[in-house]
Inverse folding.
């Protein structure tokens, strides 16, 4: 049975706190000036894990992802206690992938060995840029040197590590990005997440952009930067396996594949989302985003779930399409038909294939092409119509 055929089950744990809020970030992250009561939060995580496991018992956990916020602000003992709670209520695969997102500051890098001892075996570092001016503009609290030092510590502490970079930054040229990307690949070993800077409503960058004080690359430059990303990474042996993620063969982030392949996952912690299969029905869950409100809910009710929607066959199939076409491996239309009760329109498939946006393998598997990825939303909308 291939990796793609196994029923994966992931657990996502959200640590919602950051030292400061980055001006481009619209994630559920919060700054607290008083120390966070980690003992109380651990008890709440364990309680929500217990309640969730009672809803979906008997699962084998194939991946765990500690995301945020900034999980590397947690003490290693806190991480260990969360992992112990998962192991107490579900069976955990022997080869489980346990990823922790970390800031590449020297303070947080000193905890890496503690995280390794606690059971983390993969770290994802929010480097974001390899030059100090860009890091300052992005509101990051580390320097490029400090980030590279943290990467070097990660290399000694973990078998697997990855880091993120943001491109299409103000004043960035394809030449500058090519040089930065080559430097990143020389440091990255097996995996890179490369995101185009997007201006999200409600962030400080949104206001600056609207006022003309933040100039991002025009559409043609942004497309050139995207093309450079694909070409350089493919040439260096880290092709895109998902629209923003690049890896050597076998080094893909297994937890993120759970999302993109439409598998099941539990969402634990403030603002965490989950997809759980209960009595043959796919439930889309989301918890209270506000950390202290989530805490009180869990202490009272055993969980912080605010929404628990049963997805109908159409919604589930559309989500499978939307997520699966992000992957270079594409989707099996037979699975779409099994979920939705209808087949994808062969005329639309033929039209998109003629336009060069998708390919269809001999076994019928659909994949988005290199030229289709920049217009992925339109391709998905066309197929789902």
């Amino acid at each position: 049975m291939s990796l793609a055929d196994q029923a994966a089950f992931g657990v996502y744990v959200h640590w919602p706190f950051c030292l400061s809020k980055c001006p481009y970030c619209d994630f559920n992250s919060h700054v607290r000036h008083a120390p966070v009561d980690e003992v109380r939060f651990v008890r709440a995580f364990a309680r929500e894990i217990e309640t969730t496991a009672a809803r979906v018992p008997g699962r084998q956990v194939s991946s765990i992802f500690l995301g945020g916020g900034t999980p590397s602000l947690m003490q290693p003992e806190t991480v260990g206690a969360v992992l112990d709670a998962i192991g107490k209520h579900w069976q955990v695969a022997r080869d489980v992938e346990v990823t922790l997102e970390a800031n590449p500051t020297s303070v947080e890098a000193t905890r890496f060995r503690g995280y390794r001892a606690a059971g983390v075996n993969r770290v994802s570092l929010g480097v974001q840029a390899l030059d100090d001016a860009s890091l300052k503009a992005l509101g990051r609290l580390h320097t490029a040197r400090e980030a590279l030092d943290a990467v070097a510590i990660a290399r000694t502490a973990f078998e697997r590590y990855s880091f993120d970079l943001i491109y299409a930054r103000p004043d960035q040229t394809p030449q500058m990005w090519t040089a930065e990307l080559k430097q990143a690949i020389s440091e990255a070993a097996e995996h890179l997440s490369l995101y185009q800077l997007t201006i999200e409503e409600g962030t400080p960058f949104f206001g600056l952009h609207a006022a003309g004080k933040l100039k991002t690359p025009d559409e043609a430059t942004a497309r050139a930067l995207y093309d450079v990303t694909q070409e350089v990474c493919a040439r260096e042996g880290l092709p895109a396996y998902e629209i923003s993620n690049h890896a050597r063969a076998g080094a893909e982030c297994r937890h993120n594949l759970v999302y993109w392949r439409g598998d099941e996952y539990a969402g634990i912690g403030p603002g965490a989302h989950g997809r759980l299969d209960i009595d043959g029905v796919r439930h889309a869950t989301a918890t209270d985003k506000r950390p202290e409100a989530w805490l009180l809910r869990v202490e009272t009710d055993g969980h912080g779930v605010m929404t628990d929607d049963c997805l109908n066959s159409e919604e589930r199939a559309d989500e499978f399409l939307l997520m699966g076409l992000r992957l270079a491996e594409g989707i099996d239309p037979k699975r779409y038909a099994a979920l939705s009760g209808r087949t994808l329109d062969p005329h639309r498939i033929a039209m998109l294939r003629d336009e060069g946006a998708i390919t269809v393998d001999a076994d019928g598997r659909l994949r988005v092409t290199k030229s289709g990825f920049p217009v992925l939303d339109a391709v998905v909308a066309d197929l789902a119509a």
Remarks:
- The CA atoms of residues 48 and 301 lie 9 Å apart.
